[in-house]
Amino acid sequence: MKFIIVAALFSVALAAKLDEPIAIVSSNIEMKEDGSYSFDFESADGTKVSESGSQKQVGPKPEDIGTVSKGSYSYTSPDGVVITVNWVADEKGFQATGDHLPTPPPMPEHVVKMLADLKATGVL
């Protein structure tokens, strides 16, 4: 749900910069009794948002229920490039992927060797 608020604020911020409101060209929302949901919308400027989620046991006890969600959003940057972010939010946290997002550099060879050695000796 936090994502919905962020997406809405993002849309409002973009719309505030323009003289005319940006029309929503499609919008779908589905909520089921089991707690699962999905929604998506697309605006006239090409911005797209999609999300779905469901209830899942995320801990050892039956009452450890949480919402797991996945989705994506895309928009066109000021320089004309379409930016797309795909994401998952589950018991492992929020994980976003996108071609424009930075990635860590590869591990140095000596670290890879050290980890392999530790694993071989049973430490890891």
From TrEMBL:
GO terms for cellular component: chitin-based extracellular matrix. It comes from the Eukaryota. InterPro entries: Cuticle_Struct_Prot, Insect_cuticle. Residues 1-15 form the signal peptide. The keyword Lyase does not apply. Keywords: Cuticle, Signal. GO terms for molecular function: structural constituent of chitin-based larval cuticle. The keyword DNA damage does not apply. Residues 42-71 are annotated as: Disordered. Pfam families: Chitin_bind_4 (PF00379). PANTHER family: CUTICLE PROTEIN, CUTICULAR PROTEIN 47EF, ISOFORM C-RELATED. This is Endocuticle structural glycoprotein SgAbd-1.
